[in-house]
Amino acid sequence: GAVVSQHPSRVICKSGTSVKIECRSLDFQATTMFWYRQFPKQSLMLMATSNEGSKATYEQGVEKDKFLINHASLTLSTLTVTSAHPEDSSFYICSAIAVAKNIQYFGAGTRLSVL
Amino acid sequence: GQQVMQIPQYQHVQEGEDFTTYCNSSTTLSNIQWYKQRPGGHPVFLIQLVKSGEVKKQKRLTFQFGEAKKNSSLHITATQTTDVGTYFCAQAGTALIFGKGTTLSVSS
Q1: Shortest CB distance from A44 goes to which of B41, B45, B98?
Q2: Is the pLDDT of residue B89 over 70?
């Protein structure tokens, strides 16, 4: 099946630093990728939709200057958490949609801990 | 926005017992997808239902889509410890709108 690679799997950083998370579709092209955040024991909440070659679409309440998304190619989207704070600590998961199947394939997730 | 409500939030069963999780919407769903997330893992696609009244089976898992396309269920027959995890329903539109999930624990 389709594979989505997400890197890194875990990040521990100091407050105020920026963290970049990469999401790659390995065996299919993804014009659209999605970024989710999941807090412990909660569901996945959509943060933004990443569109190749254009600006990302952010969900209500998600700061676009805080969570920078770049989708420079058909196989790569990046999420940068700028000036991270402890409240940004969470599990961030990306997904890419295989258009022909209307199925989203998820990356393994990145667990961010901000000290 | 449209929401899918999922119940129960938690379910504990003895190995061998059956398990069902329900997904409900106040509006008609164009489709419903089901995902499983193991503890510490990421969601894995299980199935998509599109047609009214559709029933699909995957081994011990039975998925149903209501006639009115406003509800769906996932039933697991004779649970095993490997079934442990959180099961999410989601409507696939431009993006996935997830239900809150049902976390299943199984004791042997």
Answers
A1: B98
A2: yes
